[in-house]
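Help needed: design a sequence for this.
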């Protein structure tokens, strides 16, 4: 079988390697789709702080069971969370294994699924509903990120939610907030393309943040009192500062964006307005289950998010496409149904 290894930033090598032999607690899977996410792009550019080379990428994916095993019939579409945890540290013992002290994530600090076949522990594998497409299956991971972020704040149900950043995660946070019963969801971005995608996903209140008037627009949008919950999904100093400036007194700001540099924010406002700054990282298994349920209930419109798929052997081209389109791209996937 073929396996894709990123040997150094910007270089992907394909090797012919043996199909893995599953251990007794493992199931052999044939990989169908791999989603490319922001963190993968950082690895491609050599700017991911916690990844060394060579690395086999691929952490958001769908696959089908290759041989019937452990109660899973051959052909069943499945996915699995990519976390490898120690089970012993304080976080793990508290049930917060997603922030394990020795957390390894497949595709970053452990081999990912960028290969035709992969053997994974039965305990990690989650079967998907029968009507799921391989693309939907590969969307479970980023949606689980969004579902977990929503779970970090109270007041989403019935509340007025502000999402800063309309990239894939911001979009999914906004859509899942609506699914969780938010009274109103407002999303901002500097990219007209991303706002248009948000509109096509049914997010009605889309604000263009590219002009100087975004502060006035946000004040007007929330009638001066501010959103009940704010999600920072851009990872920029500007949006972090906006979150603190506009959050309703006594409300929560969930920080979901990944920051390339430490942002300057006004902690004086956090103190004076009793704001709660809350971080969010990845997900737990329950978030995966909720994400699967959300997709099967149609809680999220997926089609507008799927920009394009590239065949496996054109993996590098997918990155070049993303680099050339910059913010005019949402979710790019790698398909292993056809290799080239
Ligand atoms: Zn990801
Ligand atoms: Zn641990």
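Sure. Designed sequence:
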């Amino acid at each position: 079988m073929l396996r894709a290894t990123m040997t150094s930033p910007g270089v992907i090598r394909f090797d012919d390697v043996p199909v893995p032999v599953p251990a007794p607690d493992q199931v052999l899977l044939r990989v169908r789709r791999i989603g490319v996410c922001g963190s993968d792009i950082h690895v491609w550019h050599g700017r991911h702080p916690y990844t060394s080379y060579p690395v086999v990428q691929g952490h958001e994916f769908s696959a089908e069971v290759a041989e019937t095993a452990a109660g899973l019939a051959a052909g069943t579409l499945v996915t699995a969370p990519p976390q490898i945890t120690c089970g012993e540290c304080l976080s793990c013992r508290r049930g917060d294994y997603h922030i394990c002290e020795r957390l390894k994530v497949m595709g970053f600090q452990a081999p990912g699924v960028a290969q035709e076949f992969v053997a994974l522990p039965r305990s990690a594998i989650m079967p998907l509903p029968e009507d799921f497409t391989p693309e939907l299956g590969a969307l479970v991971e980023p949606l689980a990120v969004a579902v977990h972020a929503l779970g970090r704040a109270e007041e989403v149900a019935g509340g007025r939610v502000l999402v800063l950043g309309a990239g894939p995660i911001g979009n999914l946070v906004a859509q899942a907030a609506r699914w969780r019963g938010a009274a109103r969801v407002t999303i901002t971005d500097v990219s007209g393309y991303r706002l248009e995608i948000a509109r096509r996903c049914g997010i009605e209140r889309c604000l263009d943040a590219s002009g100087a008037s975004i502060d006035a627009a946000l004040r007007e949008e929330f009638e001066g009192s501010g959103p009940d919950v704010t999600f920072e999904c851009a990872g920029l100093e500007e949006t972090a500062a906006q979150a603190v400036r506009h959050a309703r007194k006594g409300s929560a700001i969930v920080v979901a964006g990944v920051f390339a540099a430490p942002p300057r924010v006004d902690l004086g406002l956090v103190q004076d307005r009793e704001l709660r700054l809350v971080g969010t990282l990845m997900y737990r298994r329950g978030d995966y289950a909720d994400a699967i349920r959300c997709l099967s209930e149609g809680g999220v419109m997926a089609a507008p998010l799927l920009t394009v798929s590239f065949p496996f052997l054109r993996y590098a081209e997918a990155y070049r496409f993303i680099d050339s389109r910059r913010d005019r791209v949402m979710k790019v996937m790698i398909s292993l149904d056809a290799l080239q």
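The first strand starts at residue 2 and ends at 8.
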